[in-house]
Please model this.
Amino acid sequence: MSTTMAATTKAPSKAGRPPRINRSMIAEAAHDLGLEGLTLKAVADHLGVTTAALYHHVESKDDLLRAAAEHGSDAIPHPIDRGQRWAPWLLEWAHYNREVFTAQPGLLGQYLDGAIPLEAVVRDLDTILSVLVREGFTVTEANEAYALVSSCVLGMLLSAKWEEASTHATGGAVATYRHIVDAAPKRNLTFVRKLLYTKGARRPDFDARIETVLRGIAAQRGLRWKRVSRNDAAT
Model:
């Protein structure tokens, strides 16, 4: 008696083709994960590929951070020239710069380290200068005006990060300052004490600080100042 056994053999599975990725996808993944503490492995895992696969598109971790930084700066809509005057235009760019850096923790540090490609910076600068020159600025004056505004923005951002880092466990800058002042002898820290306990005293908001810079530019150029908003219509 013979028994016929139907042998069932499973064909060997072919190795699946790795998912197709490109530099843009890598940059987006890095941006989504966040730049602080970012690693190539984390990005590779997020995309479902190997770390080696990333090296076909990025040269190193620094290059990965550059790509992510550029993606982050492009993710926020750029101001559009609608024929607006110079002051609203600079105010719009001030808000753009703040939104870019606050939307992605870690981007400011990458910017200070030179991670954002200069090509993108130069393109934006040319657009900014074009409107100011149309408004009667020389190229040099236009560059100086934007440098003042952007420096003010960066200063505020760095100050905010410093305050967050130095007062994280004590309830914020105002609470920390009050604790220090209250612990000091009454005759010490007179003006900080007065500032903290003056009724109605408050720190100027973002627009108020930028307006101070814009007022200075207007005064330097002998222009009559008119308070502006980033939503001012073209005139």
Observations:
- Residues 83-220 form a domain with the Tetracycline Repressor; domain 2 fold (CATH 1.10.357.10).
- Confidence is low (pLDDT under 50) at residues 1-18.
- The longest helix spans residues 139-166.
